Each structure stands twice: as C-alpha cells, then as structure tokens.
Predict the 3D structure of the following.
Amino acid sequence: MDEISVAMIAAREAGAILKDRLDRIHSIEFKGERDLVTEADRLSEKCIRRIIMSKYPQDAILSEETATREEIGTFAGQRGRLWIVDPLDGTTNFAHGLRLFAVSIALMVDGDLVVGVVLDPSSGEVVSSEAGHGAYLGERRIRVSGTARLEDGLLATGFPYNLSRTRDNNLDHFVNLSFRCQAVRRLGSASLALTYVALGRLDGYWELGLSPWDVAAGSLIVTEAGGSVSDFRGGIFNPFGRQVVATNGLIHEEVLGALAEGRSGKALARFQPGPFFDQS
Ligand code: IPD
Ligand code: CA
Ligand code: CA
C-alpha cells in the first residue's frame, strides 16, 4: 500500500472518531490562554499514529498533541521521512459544535512535502495530493480560482491564540486587506482554508504564528492545484516557518504588497473612516 492510501485511511478513521464525538460533552483543557484540547484531539491522534506506525514503523511522526518544542526544532532541518499530523485542526470550532474542522496528514521526505491529505469529517470531503501529480477532491482533479485582481478576491485569515499579548497578532493585516479585497473570512481551521484556496472557493489565505501541522498538507495541496505558497516576503515556504501566504497565484504579488504595507504601519493611517462615518 502506498503512503497516500495510508494517509487517507488514517484520516478517515480519525474523522469518524471526531464525528462521533461532535456535540457530546467534551472534557476541555486549556493548553494556553485560548488554546483548547479535547479528548477527541487525543483519540484522533492515537488512531492516526497507530495506523501510520503499523505500516511504516521506521518513520518519524510529528503530531500536535504529543509534539514538544525540542522535537519541532530537531525536525525542522532534519532529513529522512517525517509524517506531520494535525489530528483535529479547528478545535475551538469543534468544541462549540461549529462544523469547520479537519484532519490534516502530510509526509515530508528529506525536507520536501510529498503527500498531503485533508479530510473534512462534516462534509466527508477529502482533498489530497502527491507532489508532482496534482490535487484532488475525491477522484476529481481540482484547480485554484481564476480571480485576477485582489479587489475581486475572497480571502481568509486567522489570528494566533496569544493575540492579546503580541503585536504580531495580524489585526493590522486584517484591517488593511479588508479594505483591499471583496471580503476576509476567518474559518478557524488553517488546513480547511488552504484546501478552499486549492478548490477555488477562496482566492487567498494568509496567517502567522502557525505550526507545521497546520499547514504541511494544505500547502502541498495548494501548490499542486496550481496556486502559489510563500512566506510573507515572497520567500520559499517552509512548514516550520510559522507563516503562510497561499493564493491562486494571480493575486499573490498584490497580497504580498498589502502585507508589506501592513507591517509599515502606514496602511492603517490611510484608512481612517471618511465623511460618511464622521456624520453619524
Ligand atoms: C488552529 C486553527 C486556526 C488557526 C490557529 C491554529 P488548532 O489549529 O488552524 O484556524 O488560526 O493558528 O492553531 O489549534 O485548532 O489545531
Ligand atoms: Ca491546527
Ligand atoms: Ca489541532
């Protein structure tokens, strides 16, 4: 059996666990100020680990609920085979019963992403990709949108859990880009946002403060669907780099330009409410 099939089986089994536990009372713990973990995250992770280890016992696995800071640092520059797993991407949504969450499984070999699978247990949609072979929704090949101008684009973003304690909380970019495109959504699941870019449902997505398991599978899927993925400065995307800009390719430069402007602080000053607001 090949790796993509193993990833699919693991994602489907884990997805069934999550679906089964949705809307039940969860034991919720806090990992940080706003960062939740439920028993569903842990059960899903156990299931995925078991399936991957039974087929590839020599491989390394970096999975959110068992990962340590040291482990992330070690894996960042390491060669070899590494599975990168988010057993439940969108835990806050899940804990509230909001059907926007996913299972995300990727395989990296010698630093290159080679397999990516994202499953949405609520809709049953599975989006998958193997490097060099395109991206698929089930059996159907998918492609990014053809939206050519940022002003016509629908984008998504997200905010770090520690947003009240860091200046890098993305609120500046959110305001700036909200003025420049059709609308900005905040889905609460990075991997779903990435697959929506690949499916052409969104034209772009950016976020910072991310972990490798949020973006590994989804970033490969976007690239294989014909989109562009980079860091905030347009540099080569690295799943360990904590930031991502993913677009249909056509609006990539415009999004990067807006992000650069957001950082300069000038952008917000330019967008003060106009006369319409002043009279109210
Ligand atoms: C989170 C989600 C969210 C993003 C956060 C992630 P989790 O993952 O992807 O959309 O804004 O940065 O940590 O904690 O639900 O697995
Ligand atoms: Ca996540
Ligand atoms: Ca998670």
About this structure: The pocket of D-MYO-inositol-1-phosphate (ligand 1) is lined by residues 86, 89-92, 158, 160, 188-190, 207, 209-210, 214 (CB under 6 Å). The two ends are 65 Å apart (CA to CA). The chain has ten helices and 14 strands.
